[in-house]
Every structure is written in C-alpha cells, then in structure tokens.
Amino acid sequence: MKHNFRIITTKGLISVLILITSIHVSFAQGYISETIEYDGLTREYSIYVPESYDGTTSFPLLFNFHGGGGNIAFHIAIADMSPIADTANFIVVYPQARPDPSDGNSFNWIPKVPGTFDDVPFISSLIDTIASNYQIDQNRIYACGYSLGGDMSFELACKLNNKIAAIAPVARTMQANPDSFCFPVHPTGILSILGTDDTTSPYNGLTYLGIEYYLSAAATHSYWATHNLCNPNATMNTVSPSVERYTWSTESGCAYVEELKVIGGGHDWPGSFGNMTIDASEEIWQFVSRYDINGLIDCTALSINENNGQAENYKVFPNPFNQELNIEVKFPQGNNYRIYNGIGELVISGKLNSQINTIDLSSLPPNVYLLKVESQSIKLIKTE
Fold first, then answer.
1. Residue 175: exposure state from Cβ atoms within 10 A (0-12, 13-18, ≥19)
2. Which stretches does DSSP call E strand in 162-272?
3. Are 125 and 111 in contact, with CB atoms under 8 Å apart?
4. Considering the domain 10-296, what is its CATH architecture?
5. pLDDT band at 311, cuts 50/70/90?
6. Are strands 243-249 and 255-262 parallel, antiparallel or unpaired?
7. Any idea where the domains of the chain sit in the sequence?
8. CB neighbours of 334 closer than 8 A, spacing ≥ 6?
C-alpha cells in the first residue's frame, strides 16, 4: 500500500549541489549512455562495464539509484562506483527516474500519489535488457541507492526478490506497514547506512498526524532480521569514533543484516559528503558481494525457502496454511512456541504439550510469519 505522504529530499539535494558545484566532475570514460522504451516512455540509464569484461565470464550487476528529484549525472558525481567495479569486476548501472505527474514531473522512483506508476516492472525489464547484451550473473544482482533511491532498493528487495540478492539503502529507512507490500522469498542481504541526525529521512522513522509513513531504523532492521531467521539481538563493533556497525546473524553465525550507524550523521553519502570516516560506496560492495540469490555465499545455514516446514526437532503442516497449523515435535516436553510478524512483533505464543499440536491461527491476517520453537525457526505463510 502506497502513501500520499513522501519525504521531500529537495533540501538535502540542494545542500549537496552547493557542496559540489565548485568541483570539476570528470566521469569515468567507461560510462555508456543508453535508452530503453518502456511503458510509452524513453527511459535513460548509464552503464559502466569494466575493461576486464570480455564476454566469457558472467559479471555481477549492481543498480545504484539517485535520490528524489535527482538525475544520473548528479548521482554519479557523488557516488561513482566505477573505480570499485574496475577492481572487483562487476557491472554498475545508474537508471534515471521518470517524471512524476503527481509531483510537478519531478524525477521520483516512487510517486507521491499512489497508483500513478510503478517502476519495479521497469527495473525487471531493464535487467532482462542488460542481460541480453552482457553476460550477467543472474544469481548476483544487487541494488543500492540514496534517499528515495534507497527507498527504491527496498521496493526491489520486497517486490522483485526473485531477482535481487542483496540491497544497501543509504539515508533511508523502510516504508511503514511492510506486511502489506513486502513478500521476500529467499534470504536477502540488507545493509543500511543511516545518520542519527538525518532530518530529511529521520532515523527514528516518520509519523505525521498520527499516521506512520516510515519505520524507525530499529523496526527496519527487525523486519529483515526476522525474515532472515536472525537472532533479534545484534552485535556491535566500533568502526570509527562516529560510526558503529551492528550485525544480525542466524544461529549458525551467518550475517544477513547490517547497519552502519553514523552518529550525528545527516542526509549524506558518507565518503563523498557528510561523514568521511567510512566510504559508503566501498562498504556497499563489500557487503552485497557476499550474497547470491540463495543467501550468504558459502553459509551452511538452512535457507528460509528450503526448510520446507521442517526444523531439526519439529515440523509444521500444512505450510502454507489457511486457518489451523499443526506442529509436530519429536520430544513433547512443554516446548515454548512463538510466532512473530514481519517486523518482529510477537503475535502468538504458547506451549506444545503433545506430539502433534493444532494451533488456531484464523485471527492472523494472510502474510508471512516466523515460528520459533525454542531456538529453531521456520517461515510460515498464511493464505487467504
């Protein structure tokens, strides 16, 4: 569900423009300007292909989305990832947002008025177009973005999850009510880079006139930690005096969710403007490159979509379910069970006192849930 209210990024964009207007920007020679016809519009994008690419090896693909009201050239000026692509051997693409007729034709990835347009299918089509021209590793497609572009990366992780392995939004938390629009189907790497003093995209979320529009950083990370079967408690490491790294991992120690918390940071792209103790572009690639469409590469933990309703000491059936869920345990000794919704809120709990336990879940709305019995987790899907 889309909201009529959107965070306006103009102030942040103007501040950055002032910062870089005196800087002579020389774009990497390898950028190629391309267009694609989609939905009656000519859409633009710039693609950087490293010299090492010769068509014999499939390269990962990374999308980098500009902020609201921005454009390709401006975003490359603040977040040029071509030097990293040269050494790490991946293809990076900077798409151009379309004019939003509900916002004076400002370039927006997500319209100010719901239902005006949806750019997720456009990105899906763009992936297919690029893959027809280059050897792309279809298991390693990633997305990142600044501000509203970060919002777009969340959209892809939620709605194009069958193609997107990991994302890294900068200066943006997730839209509120994710259970209404977010349906990830595989373990998904999530890195956020957020400033605690960001007034454009507030760290603690955005609520206006009693309506929540954006989740807090804590709720954003809880949602994805729950989806990825991670421990709800993160570990923290100090990166610099002004940056802390929080990591959420599975019981097997596989890290799926990370936050780079910039203490006192604003609506910035660290390493380009704002905090200069980390480089957001480098951090993004170092994170997303660890994942493919099946989850964390070389991680031995059972992936969410492969457990088939069965853990080590119990199993559930049917799954997906409609009204009732059966939980069969190997050792019926009064085990506790807990069911969480998509943002990590406990919705139902109780004890399992017999070998086969039937739980009435008719009161839950259709969605994706997480069942935990002691320390073991299973993803549940409730249908209409």
1. buried
2. 166-170, 189-195, 206-208, 211-214, 235-240, 243-249, 255-262
3. no
4. 3-Layer(aba) Sandwich (3.40)
5. low
6. antiparallel
7. 10-296, 307-382
8. 351, 352, 353
Tokens representing residue 44 in the block: 């633009």
Q: What is the pLDDT of residues 111-164, one digit of tens each?
A: 999 899 999 999 999 999 999 999 999 999 999 999 999 999 999 999 999 999
pLDDT at 3: 44
Strand stretches in 84-219, DSSP E = 91-95, 98-100, 106-108, 136-146, 166-170, 189-195, 206-208, 211-214
| pLDDT at position 20 over 60 | no
Give the position of tokens 């391309």: 34
Cα separation values, 230 from 165, 292, 370, Å: 17, 18, 11
Query: For position 375, what pLDDT does the model report?
Result: 63
Per-residue pLDDT at 198 exceeds 70:
yes
Q: How many CB atoms within 10 Å of residue 105?
A: 10
Quote the DSSP letter at residue 354.
S
Domain covering 307-382 assigned CATH 2.60.40.3080 in the classification:
yes
Q: Which two tokens stand for residue 372?
A: 């935990």
The whole model's pTM is what? 0.77
Strands 324-329, 314-317: pairing is antiparallel
Q: How far is 27 from 46, CA to CA, in rounded Å? A: 11
Burial label for 275, CB within 10 Å (0-12, 13-18, 19+), is buried
Instruction: Name the residue among 302, 153, 303 with its Cα closest to residue 220.
Output: 153
Question: What residues does 358 pair with on adjacent strands?
Answer: 326
* Three-class DSSP category at 61: strand
